[in-house]
Amino acid sequence: MAEVINMPRLSDTMEEGTVAKWLKKVGDKVEEGDILAEIETDKATMEFESFHEGTLLHIGIEEGDGAPVDSLLAIIGEAGEDISALLNGGATPAVETAAEPGKEAVAETPAPANEGAAVAIPEGVEIVTMPRLSDTMEEGTVASWLKKVGDTIEEGDILAEIETDKATMEFESFYSGTLLHIGIQEGEGAPVDSLLAIIGPEGTDVAAVIASGGATSSGNEAAATPAAPAQEAAAPAQEASGTTAVTTANNGGRILASPLAKKIAAEKGIDLTKVNGSGDHGRIVKRDVENYQPAASAQPAAAPVAQESAAPASVAPINLPVGQESSEEVKNSQMRKVIAKRLSESKFTAPHYYLTIEIDMTNAKASRAQINNLPDTKVSFNDMVLKACAMALKKHPQVNTTWNGDTTIYNHHVHMGVAVAVDDGLVVPVLKFADQMTLTQIGASVKDLAGRARNKKIKPDEMEGSTFTVSNLGMFGIQEFTSIINQPNSAILSVGAIEEKPVVRNGEIVVGSTMKITLANDHRTVDGATGAQFLQTLRAYLENPVTMLA
Predict the structure, then answer these.
(1) Which residues are catalytic?
(2) Does residue 69 register a pLDDT over 60?
(3) Which sign, positive or negative, has the C-alpha torsion 9, 10, 15, 20?
(4) Calpha distance 341→290 (Å, rounded)
């Protein structure tokens, strides 16, 4: 009997996942323990093992697509087994009853009431839905279609580029056939599991499938015909200028470029319509953008201001700047949307207040220099701040709490979150039991976690469970700032730069090294006096680093 495999929950915060790579294809034999696919969340990519034996009969989420947890991922069963009832969802009883002799009337009665959900998929037709490519993804945007309705699709062809909250990823087809329908147009977003495309034999009527899909399609049969997409593709082509013919004219008005090429172009301010692609089918790749040289163009001559006839002849003409006003509206990435949503929730649900103190870092600088003179040892000021915070939290457990409505959770362990900037936003790796770690252990762990976080190689459990967070912008020269609490934490520490400036010491003005830190607190769990006492303890550790070595 066929077994349905759903999108697994790979972490306690995961809501959706993305199939980074399928290691099996439809028709392959699968043994228990075989690796079916690599599943990507916004935190890591993990191998997904099969717990069933049989033949892979169906793939529900294409490579590069994302879907919510518990979405249909695959079906494994006997070779040639009929799985149409499982694909139609909820139609199993009707199909089984119809197959039993003497019960035709029972099968026919409920069918009309649920006809839309039980429409049989024509033979050879494959439904492609918007994938869930990260555990926080709720919707995806089609950045570009690389195929159009009517095109022949081979297994492995890149159908489209899908933008998620984490990245823009190429979506590869696992089916061969003709692209019969596009459900989401370029630049449009849609929820995960919405109808993205339909692939099947050329000329197949898929109007009933579209109508029963209940996704982004409205059920209009005209949407399934090549005419409408062809007209939509013609519109941008008409807008393109003659200079963009190389990159757009032969691709239905669309710019074929890899996500990395687009990212580099955006950073350098390069117009991709002016770049010639050297990849397959004229696709713009990284080297094309890096080697791009803008064509020399004549500078527009400044328009002299006409002088009034009454003006004195001795007045020199005024050359005013000329130019063309321009602006660009860029769609927010899925990652940026999620960051905005979560920070807004934190800011507007937790009553924030802020406490700032200035710390004398003279002894810390001297201690760090001595520590780094030891063989194979290197610690940063940030490592010293993390260690001091971990120790201070043990003395002030009220700061190491979580608001839980009717109760407050006191965390007896100290898991330090370390804010790390990545290309598209911010992630927070976690140092587990940081109060038990030495300075050198903290330094090595932070370096490892931050590096893997930037490369999206960090494991999900290494991004979870923080009880307190530190955000450091001192390396950018920022003197002082405030952060939004990383819920469910009750506080977050903002660390500024160490500055040399005149200070009063023993009644004399001398050159000192100081650093400002700001503690953002959730007033529901941390009172003002509690936050102030925590900062006093933290200052004592940092101004006398030897106490952290005891």
Answers:
(1) 523, 527
(2) yes
(3) negative
(4) 35
